[in-house]
Amino acid sequence: MIIRRIASALKRQDLSQVIIEIMIVVVGIFIGLQVDDWNNDREERVTERAYLSRLHSEVMQNLSFNADNFEEFLLLENFKATAKYIDEVLDVFEGIDTETVLNDRHCMAIFASDIYNHQQSYLPTLTELIASGQLSIIENEDIKIALSEYTLSFNGLELQVTSLGNVRLELHAKYPLMFKFDRRMRNLVDTDQYSNHCDFDAMKENQSFNNDLIVNRAKQFYFILVLSKQQQALQNVHAVLDEELGISHGGASQ
Q1: Half-sphere exposure of 27 (CA within 13 A, CB side)
Q2: For the whole model, what pTM was predicted?
Q3: Is residue 72 part of a domain?
């Protein structure tokens, strides 16, 4: 219809009409393209929202998973507590601490001094976004920065765990006569109720044992440092997702 009007205007040499008809065509094409862009952007925002909601769900699952499933062994706070008990043991052995009475908890800390295990903090949706090249669909720069920092910290932690695991010093295996464990410990539940026994006197007098315990404590220091950064990075991801999605865990979602 428009082409017919343009042809008719050309025959009449009505240039103003030709220009008007061409303008109508151009504007129509522009509006059509703009509508397509709006639709595409709207679809991307819907997709982005779905990805962010999935990420938030995975972060929440990871933050609660450790507390629910690894109460005594894998929580960052318990790694720090184990390190504190080991420091007390070394201080007693060196004569710096003359008041602390070493007990079953100190024995358990020595046993756990070679355990390096990152908390379960995998984010499948983040892996999917990176693998599919869809990470750019996220518009919020704070979220992208938080996810990038989390990825770096998580990869660093995995490398640290692998490196430490390759040179583990299992003191209970190397010095078996110095340990006697409660049979109930095989369940790894309610460790404070176990009656484990360590020959602290023999440990104190054995220089090789002292050296190995000090080495384990040094490794534990770096492990806790890297684990702390990874857990903080996960908390940062949680915070920016909460802000973007309008979620408040202190009350109802906004």
Answers
A1: 7
A2: 0.73
A3: yes
